Amino acid sequence: MREAMAQDKLTGAVLSVRAVSKTFVTRPVLRGIDLIVPASEAVCLCGINGAGKSTLLRVIAGLLRPDRGSISIQGCEVRREPEKSRRQLGMISHASMVYPELTVSENLAFAARLYGVPNRAGRIEEMLTGTGLSSYRHDRAGILSRGLLQRLAIARALLHRPAVLLADEPFTGLDADATENVLTIFDRFVREGGTILMTTHDLHLGLRCCARVAVLDRGVLILDARKEEIDAPRFLADYLSYARSRR
Amino acid sequence: MKDMWLGLRAILLKDIVVELRARQVLPTMVVLGMLIVFILRMASESAAAGAGVPVMGAAALWIAFLFSGLLAQERSFAAEQQNGCIDGLLLAPLDAGTIYLAKVAANIILLTIFEAVMVPLVLMAFRLHVAGWGRLAGVLLLGNLGISSVGTLFSAAVQLTRTRGALLSIVVLVLLLPMMIPASFALLVLFGALPENVVGSGSFAFVGSFRAAVAYLLAFDAVFSVACWLLFGVVVEE
Predict the structure, then answer these.
(1) pTM
(2) Could you count the other beta carbons within 10 Å of the beta carbon of residue A198?
(3) I want to staple A131 with a disulfide (CB 3.0 to 4.6 A). Which of A151, A209, B83, B229 is the partner?
(4) Distance CA B34, CA B53 (A)
């Protein structure tokens, strides 16, 4: 474990997943996953439904306990130092994780208190401006459209300046404008030194915003390559034919 | 410690604001409580005169607190399931025990507001006189703490394991039963239906005195609050 952490320091790995396995009852969902992601890198994790993408993200977030293997974020082992590693992590999932009864500002203020964000009011203002939610600050989250709700979920996830953002299908249900907005926020986050691990079914979008692609098949990582190492049009065609064959 | 206090206060304030906006728990608690009092008041008319009325009054109060408390506790985690908010809480850099303490505190506040409505109602409906308001407040607070600490843990267990309310009611009622005997004894002493010390046989004689009843309540609250606080982390994991 110490060797692995020392290696992470040498390679500059922000997110390190080593030999992670997870089984639900008798069904193995993740089998010996290894994934090292440095700072300022976005990784797109693809795979058909049931490949284990969301499970991997939940295991990294500490919401599920792996059966084997270890995960560290910024050198903090998730199981040993859960609170310290969670401070380095932001997550967007299928659900928005916001309270519909609270306003946009109140949801952000609540998250800021949970994470002990310094200069709370200033940081909330910064996030509202950055996600284009300033004019909705007094609206209850329950009346927001899907696109606005996703922007609020992103603002909530990035409020405490995490080193790693886990995004589970961040473009689902978004129209073209909302998708562009999310892509811009992700791009800014990576340029500022953030690391993204995201799952998506939309490979075009994944390849647009990520420098690296990983493919998960029945719990096994079968491909992990940088964008420049693959022929994008051929990869897309091959992936579609592979996905069809797996149905 | 500062982070824990900030987190605890944030969850507590959020729960109160959400309840004030949604108005889902308190009105239902009050209606259910009033219904129970009304039914028991009707039943007491057929009971023998004298000690029968304070007995019904004490029973009405504890039944109302138990069932309405269960309702509030069930809602406290059901609200977190909405939009996956429970994941948001579990992802925060907080110890699971802090989340539990904040939830118990929010449930205690809700139940205290409910008690402030129900106690005068029961006292008027049953024409009861209280021997010591301070002692009554103390006994109700101890009962409130016991109901909230056990109920909050099991509410989390049934909501997060996707079982529903029926199991919550059964488990919590069975666990709270030992607390109800000294709690009822204390109220009966305060309503003048029992002397401070009881000798002979039966469950009330087993409790013995008002002081012993309060000591039982204190011990129950201490044991179950600590046990539930420690178990909460296990319950919410996975």
Answers:
(1) 0.83
(2) 24
(3) A151
(4) 17
